[in-house]
Q: What sequence folds into this?
């Protein structure tokens, strides 16, 4: 299982470019934002616009990243495939920025930011740059250069953090003491706008840093290759839009379902609690960056299905441990957000479980990617999107953002079910999921207990919850050798 160990190793390295930047985001920016923006509506603006970014980024990359991995296996056409994907995204990204600036007023009105069209201009620039650089980053992943990948990602976040702290914390003091040019340059009331300005500058620096990756290959565009890639990737675009509805729609429609001011405040509060729950997604993303190219490469070798089943089992076990850590020690994690936002920690168990289910779906979805059946991605994610929309529309007006959290669980759970149903006629892998059920039941009972039991002190809470966590790990070690499996394989050189 040396390939499996290679996947685990690359996942850790990619974690430098995924976990560390996002950890800095959560450990530095989220606490900073939720304290400096005491009005939850301000943080609601940030949460909502970044939700729009997630949606538009899917549209502007239109599945080309996965299409690049799929067709780059053709060694004789690798440069042509890279050049075609890169130039395609360059043209559409530039076109998006031009159109966004031409139609800035109706676009701002559509997004309910008529008073701040400058937010939308910066938003368009960030999305366009991030969409274009998706292919250079994909090439780094394909070429097994996780170190450079991580360096660029970390640099982006460090620049963002540095600028945000300067513009929101240091600059107001300079402005108060200044009598010259700085008073014309800086506006202390702009606040939220400086968050997007910092992000735009960091994205521009990222673009500069990936230029060597772009310049290192002679770019060639081929209509024939482009049509093949679009034919493969377009269903992924539709699936991506549906998947993004599952992920981001709640932050967009909460404001519209609950009323403008009340809804925007709810978006801010929900977004803060969501940030804690989405810690699970950090590990999922780290894993996905390494897993996607690995799965395509592994498909050519014997025993691929056994490897996929093995990976699924240990992925779930490890993610359940992460799930327990987040939720059993929520008394500590809640301090990631400011005091005005802490009521939203009620969504953390639901959001973290939803992302665990999403990780299972990511593992299982390899069946349609390997068999060029990406149309099934549309069917599956569309089902999830419909469930998300129905639950939000039906229950948010009465129950608020907790209904949005439940919608995530229901949506990703349904996607897993339908992925298994559709795969039965195309690419069957015996994942032995029934053997995983006791682990889920055990983890959920522990989290529910920790939620309803009235601890008498923080010390008692830490002791009891730590015993539960160690009991879970001990059970997994006894039943499936969670810890020693990889150690034994390393010694055997398998």
A:
């Amino acid at each position: 299982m040396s390939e499996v160990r290679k996947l685990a190793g690359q996942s850790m390295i990619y974690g430098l470019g995924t976990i560390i930047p996002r950890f800095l985001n959560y450990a530095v920016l989220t606490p900073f934002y939720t304290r400096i923006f005491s009005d939850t509506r301000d943080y609601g603006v940030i949460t909502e616009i970044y939700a729009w970014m997630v949606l538009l980024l899917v549209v502007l990359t239109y599945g080309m990243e996965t299409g690049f991995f799929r067709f780059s296996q053709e060694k004789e056409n690798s440069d042509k495939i890279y050049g075609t994907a890169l130039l395609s995204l360059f043209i559409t990204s530039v076109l998006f920025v031009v159109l966004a600036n031409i139609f800035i007023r109706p676009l701002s009105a559509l997004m309910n930011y008529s008073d701040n069209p400058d937010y939308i201009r910066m938003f368009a620039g960030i999305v366009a740059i991030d969409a274009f650089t998706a292919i250079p980053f994909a090439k780094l992943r394909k070429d097994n250069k996780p170190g450079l990948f991580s360096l660029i990602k970390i640099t982006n976040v460090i620049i963002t953090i540095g600028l945000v702290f300067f513009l929101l914390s240091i600059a107001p003091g300079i402005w108060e003491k200044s009598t010259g040019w700085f008073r014309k340059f800086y506006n202390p009331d702009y606040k939220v706008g400086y968050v997007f300005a910092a992000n735009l500058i960091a994205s521009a620096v990222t673009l500069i840093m990936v230029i060597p990756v772009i310049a290192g290959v002679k770019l060639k565009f081929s209509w024939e290759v482009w049509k093949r890639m679009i034919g493969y990737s377009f269903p992924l675009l539709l699936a991506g839009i549906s998947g993004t509805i599952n992920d981001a729609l709640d932050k967009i429609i909460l404001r519209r379902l609950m009323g403008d001011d009340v809804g925007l405040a709810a978006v801010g509060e929900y977004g803060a609690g969501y940030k804690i729950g989405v810690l699970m997604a950090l590990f999922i993303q780290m894993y996905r960056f390494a897993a996607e190219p690995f799965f395509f490469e592994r498909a050519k070798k014997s025993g691929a299905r056994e490897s996929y089943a093995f990976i699924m089992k240990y992925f779930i076990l490890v993610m359940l441990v992460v799930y327990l850590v987040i939720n059993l020690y929520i008394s500590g994690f809640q301090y990631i957000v400011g005091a005005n936002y802490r009521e939203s920690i009620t969504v953390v168990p639901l959001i973290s479980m939803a992302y665990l289910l999403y990780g299972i779906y990511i593992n299982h979805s390899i069946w349609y990617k390997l068999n060029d059946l990406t149309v099934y991605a549309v069917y599956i994610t569309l089902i999830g999107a419909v469930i998300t929309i129905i639950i939000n529309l039906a229950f948010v007006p009465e129950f608020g953002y907790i209904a949005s959290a439940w919608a995530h669980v229901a949506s990703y759970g349904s996607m897993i079910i339908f992925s298994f149903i559709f795969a039965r006629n195309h690419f069957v892998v015996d994942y032995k999921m029934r053997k995983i059920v006791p682990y889920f039941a055990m983890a959920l009972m522990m989290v529910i207990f920790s939620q309803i039991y009235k601890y008498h002190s923080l010390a008692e809470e830490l002791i009891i919850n730590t015993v539960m966590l160690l009991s879970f790990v001990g059970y997994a070690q006894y039943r499936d050798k969670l810890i020693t499996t990889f150690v034994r394989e390393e010694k055997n050189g398998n």
